[in-house]
Amino acid sequence: MTDTGADRIARLNEFVHRMNSVDRDLSHPNVRPKDASTLILIDRSGAVPKVLLGKRHARHKFMPGKFVFPGGGVDRSDKRMPVATPLEPHAEARLLQRFHHGSPTRARALALAAIRETFEETGLLLGVRSEASSVPDGPWTAFAREKVLPDLRALHFVGRAITPPGRPRRFDARFFTMDASAIAHRIDGVTGPDAELVEIVWMPLSEAKQLDMPAVTGVMLEELESRVADGLRPDIPVPFYRMLRGSFLRELL
Questions:
Q1: Lowest mean pLDDT segment, chosen from 98-112, 137-151, 193-207
Q2: What is the set of domains in the chain, with CATH numbers?
Q3: Rounded Cα gap, residues 175 and 9, in angstroms
Q4: In this structure, how many other beta carbons lie within 10 angstroms of the beta carbon of residue 1?
């Protein structure tokens, strides 16, 4: 993708328009957004990049039947999980921007939450083969059993978005991407009719945009496509979507 300056500005304006055009019920009592992380796995081994998406169960109260990226809230154990490599410095610095009471430990936990949630929802263990002396109880024990340590240097920070005030659930979500070559092990049987994700699919970026998905998911796909075109350089500013006075803004971190 080769953009002129005007092309890029028009596309960015379209991102913001898409976020603002959604008909949302904003009548709920205001709640503080919870820190959350999402991971967009991308497979660039073929001629056309593909991304991993999961379809949420139709019985879920939150986004039933929608296609989403694996993700969820930060767990206490995420702060204590050892890693093979630390976050890339640009990614860590941007994670800490506009982050109330942020710290390198909390930034690291956000990155690890994306990897843990991906494992819990898809059965994919992301990282490099290595042993750890100890890991926290819970999902991280599977990483120890399979001798896999998360490789945070392989994560790219793609974007951030805060759910608008007045929604019943609010998240301060950070979106990361990682290449599919980081899949070190796979545990089968995690997705299915009774799981949070009933199916997972690898889809070309252009086709993925046509799926039934939340507006922010579609916008982050567009942001990812733009970053891939720019070589996923770590120095590229990171977009931050938040609502101010009833309208979404796109700022840069």
A1: 193-207
A2: 5-252 (3.90.79.10)
A3: 22
A4: 10
Beta bridge partners of 177: 40, 156
* Distance from C-alpha of 73 to C-alpha of 171, rounded to nearest angstrom: 8
Contacts of 6 (CB under 8 A, 6+ apart): none
- Among residues 175, 118, 110, the alpha carbon closest in space to that of 143 is found at 118
Amino acid at residue number 185:
H
89-104 pLDDT, tens digit each: 999 999 999 998 889 9
Round to whole Å and give the CA distance between 87 and 232: 15
Separation CA 112–CA 62 (nearest Å): 23
- Nearest by Cα to 186 from 31, 52, 5, 13: 52
C-alpha distances (whole Å) from 58 to each of 151, 173, 184, 199 are 33, 23, 30, 12
Residue, of 21 and 155, whose pLDDT is higher: 155
